[in-house]
Amino acid sequence: MPQIDANGLKLEYDERGPRGGRPVLLIMGLGSQMTRWPEPFLDQLAGDGCRVIRFDNRDVGLSAWFDAAGTPDFGAIAGAVAAGKAPDLAYTLEDMAADSVGVLDALGIDQAHIVGVSMGGMIAQLVAIHYPDRVLSLTSIMSSSGNRALPRATKEAQAMLMTPAPNPEADREAFLDRAVASSRVIGSPAYPLDEAVVRERAAADLDRAYHPAGFARQYAAIIAAPDRRTRLAQIGVPTVVLHGADDPLVPVEAGRDTAANIPGAELEIVEGMGHDIPPALYGRVIAAIHRAAERASAETAAQ
Asked: What's the rounded Cα separation, in Å, for the pair 121 and 141?
């Protein structure tokens, strides 16, 4: 996969589909490499005539790492947030939104349909807020508005998020076992993934790039991010908010709150879906992306 210079960083990216097709930028979630956008999902989007672009966020995968920034002091960050002060961070979600626009710049794409999942949904929202002229439509998947009054993750999901995984260099099988356990906790109850598939995917990610420090710095950017509701009200592009009814990590109320604060947003709640996109739901997620894009095309045609 190639690299590009975007926002002053080296970012790993990949694209497929017709160069003149509908441009769709995919933004992945916390600590996840771009390879978590599954190949069949990408191929279906590209087969629909889309120019599909994905990339490794900063500090994950094969993109630039920020190890010189060290490990976040989460206690100090939480204290600063509670006091209404700016915490000491390696970078913010706004910086990551600028990276996303940098990818479009590097590829010579003036406007795109922006799609983000989980943390990537937060970043996608910020792209629509800060760079409205670059966004044709927005699809925010299993993400949140940043409203601190929203319900928190279940105890099991929060424990899975906050407990470090076993060191794969010391015990590779324990690391893969943890990936299976995580999938069972946060995954879609109506669409459980096969254990062998989870292990294979986790092994592939591990062999491509293992960088837990980047996860910590990205998580610091999330917990320090301010409430976006006031700014979400400024979004003027067609938006679809898709959320699992059974999401234990980012409860469904977060999706409802996001949609309620974006003018004209369509909300789709998927029964049996947790905090992942299982193969059985690829078509449904892709349909949501197309609905947002088609609304954008219709609005442009009507002007």
From this structure: 6
Is residue 166 a contact partner of residue 185, using CB atoms and an 8 Å limit?
A: no
For residue range 202-216, list pLDDT tens digits in order. 999 999 999 999 999
* 263-267 contacts at long range (C-beta below 8 A, 24 or more positions apart): 263/233, 263/235, 263/236, 264/238, 264/239, 265/239, 265/240, 265/241, 266/239, 266/240, 266/241, 266/291, 266/292, 267/240, 267/241, 267/243
Calculate helix-pair angle for 155-162, 172-186, nearest 10 degrees: 150
pLDDT tens-digit readout, 33-61: 999 999 999 999 999 999 999 999 999 99
Cα 94 to chain centroid distance, Å, stands at: 14
> Would the pLDDT of 149 be above 80?
yes
